C-alpha cells in the first residue's frame, strides 16, 4: 500500500490534474438526518459559535483544527475528544496534539445545550463538523452544507494520531502521502492549509523555520527583515525558551478568513515549514501552481475549500459508523 501511494504521488506531482480517491472512505450521510429527531441542532450550534467566536476570534481556528485532527485519525468520529481513562488511551497526549489542540471546553459547552434539547441524538462528531463550518463563516469564510449522521467512536488511537497527522516541519512528499492516505488530493491539501489564514502557531513549531531557511525563501528587503526580526523576538533560538509563545500564521489579516496566507507563501514568508513547502519545494510543481491560483482568485479558494471540507468531513471509520454511539459526554464512552 505504501509503494502504491508513492506511485500515485509521483503521478500527481508530475501530471497536473491527476488525482485519485481511496474507495470505501466516504459513507453516506444526509443533510436532513436530524430533521425529525433534533430539528434545532444547526441553529443551536450556530448561536453558540457566534458567542464563542465573539469572545475570542481565535476560537474559530481552534474548532477548525480540532475537526481536522479528528478526521485524520479513524475518520471523523469524535475520537480526538476522548479523555484518557484506565481502559482507554486517548489521542490528546499524542505529539501532534498535546501542544496544539484546545477547545474541548467549547465542545462541552455546546454539547450540554444540545443534550438538554435532544438527549442522546446528536453525535459529538457531527457537532464538531457543524461547528467547524460555522466557525469558518463567522470569521469571513465560505458557507457549505454539512451532511450529518456520523457516529461517535468507542475507541481512540494514540498511534494513528502520532503517525497520520502532518507536522509543522514536514516535507512536501510526506505531507502529500498523509493526505492521500485519507483520500484527499493535492488540490484538497493546498485548499485545506488555507485555514492557516486564521489562528496562531507556537514557537516550538516554527523555531527551526525562522532560524533556518526563512531568509532564503523570503526577499531581502526591509519589510521581510523586520518581520523576521519580530518573529525572533517572540521565539528565542534556544530550545525550551519561549516554546509556548504564539504568533499569527497570517500576519496581515490574522482574524479574517481570506486568501492572505497564499500571498504570504508567494513572498516566501510562510511561518510553518510545512506551509512554505507548498510553494518553494523542488517537488512542488503542482502545489506551486495551486498556491498562485488561490492567491490571485479568492473565489476559487473559497469554492475549493468548501468542497474539500465536505470531503474531509465525509471520511468515516466504517467500524464506528456501524457500531458507534452517540456519546452523552464527548469526553467519555457511554457506560
From TrEMBL:
Claim: ATP-binding is one of the keywords in the record: no
Binding site for Ca(2+) 1: 70, 73, 75, 77, 79, 91
Catalysis: reaction(s): 2 a phenolic donor + H2O2 = 2 a phenolic radical donor + 2 H2O
Signal peptide region: 1-19
The UniProt record lists the keyword Calcium: yes
Annotated transmembrane regions: none
Limits of the Plant heme peroxidase family profile domain: 28-334
One GO BP annotation of this record: hydrogen peroxide catabolic process
Cofactor: heme b; Ca(2+)
Chain coiled-coil ranges: none
Residue numbers binding Ca(2+) 2: 197, 250, 253, 258
GO molecular function: heme binding; lactoperoxidase activity; metal ion binding
Active site, renumbered: 69 (proton acceptor)
Top-rank taxon, per record: Eukaryota
Disulfide links within the chain: 38-118, 71-76, 124-330, 203-235
Main location: secreted
Family the UniProt entry places it in: Belongs to the peroxidase family. Ascorbate peroxidase subfamily.
Stated name of the protein: peroxidase
Species annotation: Arabidopsis suecica (Swedish thale-cress)
Lineage: Eukaryota, Viridiplantae, Streptophyta, Embryophyta, Tracheophyta
